[in-house]
Amino acid sequence: MKTLNITLGATLAAMSFASIATAESWDMPMAYSATNFHSEMGVVFADRVRDYTGGDIDITVHPGGSLFKGGEIKRAVQTGQVPIGERFMSAHANEAPLLGWDNLPFVATTYADNERLWAAAKDGVNAQLSDLNLVALYTCPWPGQGFYFNKEVTSSKDTQGVKFRSYNTATATFAEGLGMVPVQVEAAELSQALATGVAEAFISSGSTGYDRKVWEQLSHYYKVNAWLPRNYVIVNKGIWEGLSADTQAAVQKAADETGADCAAKSAELANWYFEQLEANGMSVVDAGPEFLAELQTIGKKMTADWLAATGAEGQAILDAYNAN
Ligand code: PCA
Questions:
Q1: 88 ligand 1 Cβ < 6 A
Q2: pTM of this structure
Q3: Cβ atoms within 10 A of the Cβ of 226, count?
Q4: Distance from C-alpha of 14 to C-alpha of 196, rounded to nearest angstrom
Q5: What's the 162 CA to ligand 1 centre distance in angstroms?
Q6: Residue 229 near ligand 1, beta carbon < 6 Å
Q7: What is the DSSP letter of 228?
Q8: What are the chain's domains?
Q9: Residue nearest to atom 6 of ligand 1 (CA)
Q10: Cβ distance 33 to 64 under 8 Å?
Q11: pLDDT tens, residue by residue, 188-235
Q12: All residues at 6 or more sequence positions from 136 whose CB lies less than 8 Å from its CB, including other chains
């Protein structure tokens, strides 16, 4: 009996040594505030990964650009400074144009259409990410994009010279088309940019306006629903490929479930955000016909620019989307 106990004890010690040896702690920088649904879902993802890998991968989420700023997260993951991180996908379209698939105005304006467009874009996007030493685990859409201003706007005659916070090159193009002056600012720094006058307008969902309490400076939100851009959780390709097939499957299961939950949460919250903006004194209305017509004209140019940058690959995505 004693021998058996000793053997058993030694086996348990070896087993726990083995699990300590393979357990990994991963820091996961995220760009948006801790209470934003993307960040909350990042924590759900981390919990699921811990659960499904039996504790082998222990992810700590760092929201709000606290570990790396939004603009630094992709490079940090690419270079392995951190194994995993979350970022706004179309912010990287200047480097890899296909990643702007979700930033095409008025092409996919519902969650269902955004999902269909992603289905058409996914393989090409994943191939570009692989070239960048990245693997996407899940993506999650923001609610539809509209315009924030500090005054009533009925057409581009009201927007000339306005300092406009953009979040990628495509939104800078939009701003220029409206005679505005773009300045790129991370969401985490948006309140400060508005308070100091660096920016006085921007395009985003109700979500970011709510997170940043923009009613303190701004008065009008114009619903446009121009597109539903996505965040993605990306992992360093070398680190990913170093995981066992079982661990990869467990992490991917966590990712698939979290991506679906996150999209559902986004849809559920979309109107709630508008209610909060209104409750805090903002006017939240549909963009007027003149303004909308101008946005549609600029939008066509933005899609043409994207097709020029992505060539046959971009066209194939749109063709596949339109054929469905
Ligand atoms: N909020 C993010 C990106 C899209 C959105 O709705 C932002 O404004 O930075």
A1: yes
A2: 0.92
A3: 26
A4: 59
A5: 19
A6: yes
A7: -
A8: 25-143+229-272 (3.40.190.170), 146-227+280-323 (3.40.190.170)
A9: 205
A10: yes
A11: 999 999 999 999 999 999 999 999 999 999 999 999 999 999 999 999
A12: 125, 126, 129, 232, 233, 234
- Joined together, the tokens standing for residue 158 give 């009201």
Residue 143, pLDDT score: 98
Cα 245 to averaged position of ligand 1 atoms, centre (Å): 34
User: Residue 212 in contact with residue 190, Cβ under 8 Å?
Assistant: yes
The tokens for 231 are: 């965040």
Q: Is 171 in the pocket of ligand 1 (CB under 6 A)?
A: no
Tell me, using a 6 A CB cutoff, whether residue 221 lines ligand 1: no
In this predicted structure, the answer to whether residue 35 has a pLDDT above a threshold of 90 is yes
Which atom of ligand 1 sits closest to the CA of residue 145? Answer: 6
Contact 168, 96 (CB under 8 A): no
Q: Which atom of ligand 1 is nearest to the CA of 186?
A: 9
Task: Report yes or no: 220 and 146 within 8 Å, Cβ to Cβ.
Answer: no
Return the residue whose CA atom lies nearest to atom 8 of ligand 1. 204
Q: Is the CB of 168 under 6 A from ligand 1?
A: no
Q: Give distance in angstroms: CA of 70 to centre of ligand 1.
A: 11
Give helix then strand counts, H and E, for the chain. 10, 11
Instruction: For residues 7 and 94, give the distance between their C-alpha atoms in angstroms, rounded to a whole number.
Output: 60
pLDDT for residue 243: 97
Looking at residue 217, its pLDDT comes to 98
Q: What confidence tens digit (pLDDT) does each residue in 79-134 have?
A: 999 999 999 999 999 999 999 999 999 999 999 999 999 999 999 999 999 999 99
d(CA 92, CA 171): 13
